[in-house]
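Bumping my old thread because nobody answered last time. Still need a sequence for this structure:
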């Protein structure tokens, strides 16, 4: 297998040209209330977060609310994404050494991935789970925009039980604690919220899910999403992140932004987005 995972959605979700992509990313930051000229506001208490994964023209300004808080010195990202097509293994690490975007290559932290794979029996390296998926890929240009130099561990999830979410979250917390002794490390969950409902319905159902996220309640999040048929595609990545955050002793969650695709282009049925910061 080629050692580089090549972009699957460059030219569709976001520009394949580096200059065009840079302009779009700058617009995402400037269009968010991040201070003069979209200036960053580093948050040393930031441990984890939730970011949306639609095309940047729609969800990029929302995502920028979180990304502007990342300290440039962050060197490790554990990035949990959803496997929308359910291709390949249900919980998958990257078989590639690097992931490519129009802005360059990002190195995969194989050592940290090896530690996770050793600790979690159902976690495997599998290219099919990642090859056509956008939920992790779409985050990389933002990370390249705000960080000096970093490595990451991409984990694609298609189905896990609540018990498996807790197990994976506990393992992530353990490797986070070890990595954080040497390098600044963060956990990110990639998720959109309600899909293709009216703005009113989207707001109502999104709030039910976000209330559980803000309460740092992964079990409750899984329950309300199922009970209310909330089409939160990244509920599993978010639940795993919350289990990890709780194991690490985080103190609070803050909603940075909640919006939907209709805020960009008026439409009858919209997709909900949110950025949430989890802090020590």
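Sorry it took so long. Here it is:
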């Amino acid at each position: 297998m080629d050692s580089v995972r090549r972009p699957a959605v460059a030219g569709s979700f976001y520009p394949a040209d580096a200059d065009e992509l840079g302009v779009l990313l700058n617009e995402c930051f400037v269009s968010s209330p991040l201070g003069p000229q979209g200036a960053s506001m580093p948050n040393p208490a930031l441990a984890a977060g939730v970011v949306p994964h639609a095309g940047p023209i729609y969800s990029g300004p929302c995502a920028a609310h979180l990304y502007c808080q990342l300290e440039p010195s962050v060197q490790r990202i554990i990035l949990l994404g959803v496997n929308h097509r359910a291709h390949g293994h249900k919980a998958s690490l990257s078989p590639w050494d690097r992931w490519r975007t129009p802005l360059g290559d990002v190195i995969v932290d194989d050592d940290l991935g090896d530690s996770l794979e050793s600790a979690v029996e159902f976690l495997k390296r599998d290219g099919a789970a990642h090859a056509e998926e956008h939920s992790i890929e779409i985050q990389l240009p933002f990370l390249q925009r705000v960080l000096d130099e970093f490595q990451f561990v991409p984990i694609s999830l298609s189905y896990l039980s609540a018990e498996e979410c807790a197990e994976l979250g506990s393992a992530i917390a353990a490797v986070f604690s070890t990595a954080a002794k040497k390098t600044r490390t963060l956990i990110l969950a990639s998720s959109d919220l309600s899909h293709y409902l009216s703005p009113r319905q989207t707001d109502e159902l999104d709030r039910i899910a976000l209330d559980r996220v803000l309460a740092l309640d992964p079990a409750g999040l899984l329950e309300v999403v199922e009970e209310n048929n909330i089409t939160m595609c990244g509920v599993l990545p978010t639940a795993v992140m919350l289990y990890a955050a709780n194991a690490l002793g985080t103190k609070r969650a803050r909603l940075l932004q909640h919006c939907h695709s209709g805020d960009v282009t008026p439409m009858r049925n919209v997709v909900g987005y949110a950025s949430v910061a989890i802090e020590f």
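The radius of gyration is 17 Å. Let me know if any region looks off to you.
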